[in-house]
Design a protein that fits this description.
alpha+beta; globular; 6 helices; 4-stranded antiparallel sheet; 8-stranded mixed sheet
């Protein structure tokens, strides 16, 4: 009827928009603070690298180029590498996201929660003076590349929940920075006997059979600060630290 006013119906998007914006801004602020705190913590662990030839038994740092022991295949991307970081997450749908979008294909809604994570592989780092062996499992791992991901979309379609596997790889020929305590090859073998994790069989055989590796200083997780990065010391010292995986 003319002249009679009716209240305008508020859409779901208008009603939930402010709450969604607040959540988004809070998430961005948390990410920035976490990245700055992580970068500050990792930088406190960094030491200027020394020549591999001069290594003793104390905590130190080396830098050089990555050489393969054997190359392995990363499961998500199928790329060949010397080591890879693998993270498995489960997806839990957000009630707010369901109410606004009502669409289980929106993978950005809800929360991805880490179920498991591993660092697989080992490699040699070489500078002009010598070589050292690195087993990066258990390190504060900094890999400067984007994630490769594989998602279980069938589960996401059916229930708004699901699973995804993500990986980053370390390639032969890349720069490397290692902060840790060098040990003997025998100490590395003793550590592997305690926990070899999911080390590929061909890599384990190479460690046992390649005689030239037995004379190299070895870096592995021993409870002391241990940082492994596929970047130079100068780049780590000057740039914003990327995602750090605590193995």
């Amino acid at each position: 009827m003319e002249g009679r006013g009716y209240p305008r119906r508020v859409s779901r998007y208008e009603a939930d928009g402010p709450a969604l914006l607040v959540l988004l801004l809070a998430g961005v602020l948390f990410w920035v603070i976490r990245r700055l705190w992580t970068g500050s913590r990792i930088r406190r662990l960094l030491l200027p690298p020394v020549s591999i030839r001069t290594l003793g038994g104390s905590s130190t740092a080396v830098a050089g180029r990555i050489l393969p022991i054997v190359e392995i295949v990363a499961p998500v991307s199928g790329r060949r590498c010397v080591a890879y970081q693998d993270v498995v997450e489960s997806h839990e749908a957000s009630r707010l996201g369901d109410r606004i979008f009502n669409n289980p294909y929106h993978l950005d809604q809800g929360t991805w929660r880490k179920m498991s994570g591993n660092v697989i592989g080992a490699f040699v780092v070489a500078d002009d003076s010598g070589k050292a062996l690195v087993w990066p499992a258990g390190a504060s791992l900094i890999i400067d590349e984007s994630w490769s991901r594989r998602e279980d979309r069938l589960a996401l379609r059916d229930s708004c929940d699901g699973r995804r596997e993500s990986e980053k790889i370390i390639r032969s020929g890349e720069a490397a920075y290692i902060r840790g305590t060098p040990h003997t090859f025998d100490a590395l073998m003793a550590r592997l006997r305690q926990d070899c994790g999911v080390m590929p069989g061909e890599l384990l055989q190479a460690l046992l059979n390649q005689g030239d590796l037995k004379n190299l200083p070895c870096f592995f997780a021993d409870g002391n600060p241990f940082v492994v990065a596929n970047q130079t010391f100068e780049k780590l010292s000057s740039d914003l630290i990327p995602d750090v995986f605590e193995g």
